[in-house]
Design brief:
Radius of gyration: 21 Å
Shape: elongated
Strand content: 25-35%
Number of strands: 15
Structural class: alpha+beta
Helix content: 25-40%
Length: 342
């Protein structure tokens, strides 16, 4: 592959890619003040936006690479990278459900591979080679994920994890996809007077205690401390939501934190319900409410997340539950540089 040409302008660094007659350039910036130099050609996922990246408490270098289409005067891809614990290698993300590369539909396989090759070469020059990359679920962008996998494997990476991820398409009604057993549980919740509600963020401390107790009943822990969750709600009031199912007495029967990933995707991030409500399964009603919220806001899919136990093995009861909700499977890949493997 021809060598990319490097240029310098102001405080940014540039590379001209050796494809498409120099139409595409790579810009990168370090620190928390990174921003695209040209308008984005796509709706960025929350975890890849500079504002969220700035809140990920990386201890060392953080870089944001942008792919620019000079003919269209647009930014057509972005790729955040973090140095991992000042250890001489880098990862994406540092602290988020996923990192990786998001790209516009117009980016071809050739341009994507040239972009990734240029980024990897620059990271080698900086002596922080990329060793691990966690991608977003395939359902987020079914056309882009295979291109990413092809580019990464051709450049010496291999998939070390392929987690099963479920989502609900919001084009269909919620009940139409439900398994008969879950339809019965949904009606049981409704007959018992349970109601889906959106809760105000000021209830986060109480909600966090509820979530933590529910997790403890299953010998699990929450991935974020309360202070971190409160900070995310403050910084992203349009993206973070607290939803509940309350029983007829007004008590919480189920609760979740939901995240608007972008205008198309709603993520059911922290669903929980006490074991005492297992006979009702109020999480079915909770998902029904999220489904209705997503449809009302013109979204495309409700992400139900992966189904893994803390040790890394599949949580088969949870997998079966998501299947009974009508969940559609896609995969969430994690890639590592082959040289980093034992």
């Amino acid at each position: 592959m021809p060598t990319a040409l490097r240029e310098t302008a102001a405080s940014d660094d540039f590379l001209v890619l050796p494809v498409a007659g120099g139409r595409f350039t790579v810009r990168w910036q370090s620190g928390t003040g990174a921003a695209p130099g040209l308008p984005l050609a796509f709706d960025p996922f929350l975890f890849l936006r500079p504002a969220h990246l700035a809140l990920q408490p990386a201890p060392a270098v953080r870089l944001l690479f942008w792919l620019e289409d000079q003919r269209r005067q647009q930014t057509v891809a972005l790729f955040p990278v973090f140095e991992a614990h000042a250890s001489g290698h880098s990862i994406s993300p540092y602290q988020a459900p996923f990192g990786g590369i998001q790209l516009a539909d117009s980016v071809s396989a050739e341009v994507l591979q040239a972009f990734l090759a240029a980024v990897l070469a620059e990271l080698q020059t900086l002596k922080i080679p990329l060793t691990r990359l966690k991608c977003y679920p395939g359902a987020y962008d079914p056309a882009a994920v295979p291109l990413l996998g092809q580019a990464l494997t051709s450049l010496g990476f291999r998939a070390v994890e392929a987690e099963v991820n479920h989502h609900l398409p919001l084009s269909a009604s919620f009940e139409a996809r439900l398994h008969p057993s879950e339809q019965r549980r949904l009606r049981k919740c409704q007959r018992a007077g349970m109601q889906f509600e959106q809760e105000p963020p000021l209830l986060l401390p109480l909600a966090y205690e509820f979530l933590a107790r529910c997790r403890q009943e299953k010998a699990q822990a929450l991935s974020l401390p309360l202070e971190r969750l409160q900070e995310l709600f403050r910084q992203f009031p349009r993206e973070f939501f607290l939803f509940s199912v309350r029983d007829a007495q007004g008590n919480w029967a189920a609760l979740t934190v939901a995240i608007r990933i972008n205008e198309q995707v709603l993520y059911n991030f922290y669903p929980a319900s006490p074991l005492a409500y297992n006979a009702f399964s109020p999480v079915v009603l909770l998902n029904a409410g999220l489904h209705a919220f997503g449809r009302a806001n013109g979204m495309r899919l409700l992400d139900l997340g992966t189904s893994m136990l803390p040790g890394g093995s599949p949580n088969f009861p949870l997998l079966r539950f998501k299947e009974h909700l009508g969940g559609v499977v896609s995969q969430k890949f994690t890639f590592e540089a082959a040289a980093s493997q034992p």
